[in-house]
C-alpha cells in the first residue's frame, strides 16, 4: 500500500482550512485518512501551522511520501530539516495574542465618560415618516383653529 502525507481540505468556499493527513494514495482527497498529524490555516495572518513532529518523523521514516505542499509546510515547521539533515533555516511566525474584548469595552466606556453619544434604540424610517406627517397635520389643524377663532 502506497502511503502519502497530504492535505485534506475543509472549510467554506474561499475560506479553506487544511489538515495534514496520512492516507492511502488511492483514496479521495477529502476521504478517509489513516491519521491526522497537523493542521494548516492559510488565510490567517500569519498562517497557522501546527504539526505533530513526532508522528511526522515516524511516517517519513517508514516511507510515506509527502506531497509538494506538505514538504513546504514541513520546511516551515522544521520537520523536513530533521528528516533530511538539511541545515536551511526554518520557523513558523507566532500568532498574535488575542485582544481581551472586555478590557477593550471597558476602555471605550471610560473614554465616553459614561454618556452615550446616540440613542440606545434607533427609530425605524417608517416611524420617522409617521411622526413628521402627524407633526404637519397638528400644525395644519392649529392654523385652521387659529384662523376660525380670529374671525369669530
TrEMBL record:
Keyword Calcium: no
InterPro entries, A to Z: Ribosomal_bS16, Ribosomal_bS16_CS, Ribosomal_bS16_dom_sf
Gene Ontology CC entries for this record: ribosome
Ranges where the record places region Disordered: 82-152
Entry keywords, A to Z: Ribonucleoprotein, Ribosomal protein
Sequence similarity: Belongs to the bacterial ribosomal protein bS16 family.
HAMAP family: Ribosomal_bS16
UniProt protein name: Small ribosomal subunit protein bS16
Natural source organism: Microlunatus panaciterrae
Amino acid at each position: 500500500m502506497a502511503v502519502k502525507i497530504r492535505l485534506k481540505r475543509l472549510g467554506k468556499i474561499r475560506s479553506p482550512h487544511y489538515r495534514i493527513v496520512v492516507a492511502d494514495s488511492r483514496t479521495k482527497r477529502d476521504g478517509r485518512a489513516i491519521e491526522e498529524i497537523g493542521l494548516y490555516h492559510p488565510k490567517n495572518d500569519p498562517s497557522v501551522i501546527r504539526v505533530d513532529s513526532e508522528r511526522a518523523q515516524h511516517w517519513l521514516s517508514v516511507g510515506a511520501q509527502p506531497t509538494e505542499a506538505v514538504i513546504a509546510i514541513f520546511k516551515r515547521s522544521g520537520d523536513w530539516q530533521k528528516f533530511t539533515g538539511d541545515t536551511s533555516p526554518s520557523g513558523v511566525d507566532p500568532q498574535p495574542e488575542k485582544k481581551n474584548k472586555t478590557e477593550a469595552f471597558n476602555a471605550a466606556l471610560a473614554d465616553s465618560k459614561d454618556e452615550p453619544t446616540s440613542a440606545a434604540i434607533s427609530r425605524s424610517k417608517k416611524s420617522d415618516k409617521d411622526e413628521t406627517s402627524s407633526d404637519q397635520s397638528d400644525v395644519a389643524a392649529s392654523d385652521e383653529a387659529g384662523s376660525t377663532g380670529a374671525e369669530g
